[in-house]
Structure to design on (430 residues):
């Protein structure tokens, strides 16, 4: 099977073929394209940073406070930079979002112009300002350090060609007089090239991570909490409506259909077989009985009657008895379960046992129902062939969606050759 292509540089760095892939060249393109942007920003920051550094240096080393003109210049300049930063950061952020695709294929949210006031009032705007200062202040320093390391390594590699020069070249504080003395340094320099290459990739990955953090819109935690609450309310309302429909069908439509089927059966007994009405009456009777079966299945699909009558452990045992595969049920449940959790757990067991029968080729399965802390844990395992893959069908995906709707989680372990284990954890908050 062909390995999945990495989507970003940090993931690609963990692969053995990184050096011979296209990722080093993409990282180099990202680094080179950063130079003009970071250079321009660094020059702009130096206009304020250099006088500020000189003033601090004079105060600390010479105990000489800065003069009034310098203080005025620093104050006005700093306020001007802060005032213009949210506006300047917008086009820089747009370019950075475009450049980030060189080393990170994961999509970023779009960045339309939110309005001048919003640039000063939103957290997203000031995150971009922070990235602006990081790009113009921290990035140039790291680039210079890396450039010095690269020049130093190139000096090691080229030292055999410099040996014998009248100026007596020095490598690591040692003068080189002959080519033989320089060869070990050249070998070390060659061996350091992959290290520098990985270091450049690692630095690029760090820079891309900072860019993604700063340029992605911040998550609104309050909005997420409200979405979770609204989802819970919708699921609860949906389950309540399901129960109402189940009661209406079970207590209203189903008894009347049973009575109609009985009346048609009695009418068939009273009508002679050679009567013209005998055949239509038989057809109507058969259709009524088929409709009863269909209605019973619909009621069972909404909320099984066995779940209401026997509870979760008893209903799971009923599913196990009806399965064509030998199933052992172990239940350790104390206390009453929330109705929505009980219904979800039942359908987890039902769908999992159905998959065992249809796809696993297993001879035995186990169902375990336990209360762990505040969660109901449902585990269904089998001794089948394994290899279950949610992407190959909608059964496991639909099951995961049903579990997620009640804030639970589904874990699947199904290596080729088996065994398969489905573990579902459902919170039992009432």
């Amino acid at each position: 099977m062909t390995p999945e292509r990495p989507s970003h540089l940090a993931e690609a760095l963990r692969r053995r073929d990184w050096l011979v892939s296209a990722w080093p060249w993409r990282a180099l393109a990202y680094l080179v394209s950063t130079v003009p942007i970071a250079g321009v920003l660094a020059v702009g920051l130096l206009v304020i940073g250099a006088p500020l550094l000189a003033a601090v240096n004079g105060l600390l080393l010479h105990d000489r406070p800065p003069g009034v003109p310098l203080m005025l210049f620093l104050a006005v300049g700093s306020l001007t930079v802060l005032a213009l930063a949210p506006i300047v950061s917008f086009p820089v952020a747009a370019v950075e979002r475009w450049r980030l695709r060189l080393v990170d294929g994961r999509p970023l949210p779009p960045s339309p112009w939110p309005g001048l006031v919003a640039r000063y009032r939103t957290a997203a705007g000031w995150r971009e300002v922070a990235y602006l200062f990081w790009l113009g202040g921290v990035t140039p320093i790291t680039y210079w350090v890396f450039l010095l390391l690269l020049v130093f390594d190139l000096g090691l590699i080229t030292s055999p060609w410099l040996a014998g020069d009248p100026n007596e070249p020095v490598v690591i504080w040692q003068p080189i007089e002959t080519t033989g003395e320089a060869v070990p340094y050249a070998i070390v320099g060659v061996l350091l090239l992959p290290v520098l290459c990985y270091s450049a990739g690692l630095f690029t990955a760090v820079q891309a991570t900072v860019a993604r953090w700063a340029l992605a819109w911040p998550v609104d935690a309050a909005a997420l909490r409200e979405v979770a609450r609204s989802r819970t309310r919708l699921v609860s309302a949906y389950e309540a409506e399901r129960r109402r429909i189940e009661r209406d069908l079970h207590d209203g439509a189903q008894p009347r259909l049973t009575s109609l089927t009985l009346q048609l059966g009695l009418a068939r007994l009273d009508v002679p077989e050679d009567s013209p009405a005998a055949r239509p009456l038989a057809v109507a009777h058969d259709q009524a009985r088929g409709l009863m079966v269909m209605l019973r299945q619909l009621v069972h699909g909404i909320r099984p009657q066995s779940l209401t009558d026997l509870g979760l452990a008893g209903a799971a045992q009923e599913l196990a008895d009806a399965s064509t595969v030998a199933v052992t049920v172990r239940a350790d449940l104390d206390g009453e379960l929330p109705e929505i959790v009980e219904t979800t757990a039942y359908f987890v067991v039902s769908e999992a046992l159905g998959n065992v029968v249809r796809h696993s080729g297993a001879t035995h399965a186990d169902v375990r129902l336990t209360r762990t802390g505040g969660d109901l844990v449902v585990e269904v395992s089998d001794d089948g062939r394994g290899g279950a893959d949610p992407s190959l069908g909608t059964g496991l995906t639909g099951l995961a969606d049903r579990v997620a709707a009640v804030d639970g989680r589904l874990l699947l372990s199904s290596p080729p050759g088996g065994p398969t284990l489905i573990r579902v954890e459902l919170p039992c908050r009432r």
